[in-house]
Structures are given as C-alpha cells and as structure tokens.
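Hi team,

Below is the intake form for DNA-binding transcriptional ArsR family regulator from Nocardioides ginsengisegetis. Please confirm the fields before the structure is written into the shared record.

FORM ID: S-0412
PROTEIN: DNA-binding transcriptional ArsR family regulator
ORGANISM: Nocardioides ginsengisegetis
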Amino acid sequence: MTVMEDELSRVFAALADPTRRAILARLARGDATVNELAEPFAITQQAVSRHVKVLEHAGLVSRSRSAQSRPCALEAARLDDAVGWIERHRATWTERHDRLAHYLKEQQ
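The structure came back. Fields below:
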C-alpha cells in the first residue's frame, strides 16, 4: 500500500461515520469549537472530541489556537483528494457498466 492509499484509507474510514460527516458539514459553514460542534448531538463533548481527533488524523480537520479556544477548521483539500480518487474509478466503472449493457443488449 502506498502512502497516498494509506491517507485515503484514513479519509474514507473517517467518512464512514455519520457523526463525523455531520461535523464536516457543520465545519463547511465555518470554523467552530468542540463545544459548538457538540451542540446538535446527543452525545458527550468527549465523544465529539474523539470524532474530531479521528478527523484530524485523516487530515480533514485542523485546529488552531485563538485566545482560550481551539477552533476546528475544515481541510477541504483532503476531501478533494478523495473525490479525485472516486472520479478516477467512476470512469472505469462507467466504462465497464456500458460494456455490460452493450453485451446484454446484443444477447437479446
């Protein structure tokens, strides 16, 4: 496995959880602290912090320091890498699907 594939594995593993996807959707609207991210969820702040750490490890979220808070920010470039991977494979899958459809049409 190459380094790029390993990074993609972390991105896709992070995106597999609906809470983490919701956190990313919130961060797409702007930076937020963990407390702000935790507000809509019926889970503890510590649980949200664990989700944020997974997102940080995947490179999808970064944290800065502003006075007493550490706001989280979306790192959209990492999502672009995942979208690029999907798009490259979509072309292959589409081509295979089209060939199968053509074959099935010939068999009728």
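SUMMARY LINE: Helices lie at 3-15, 18-27, 34-38, 45-57, 76-107.

Thanks, M.
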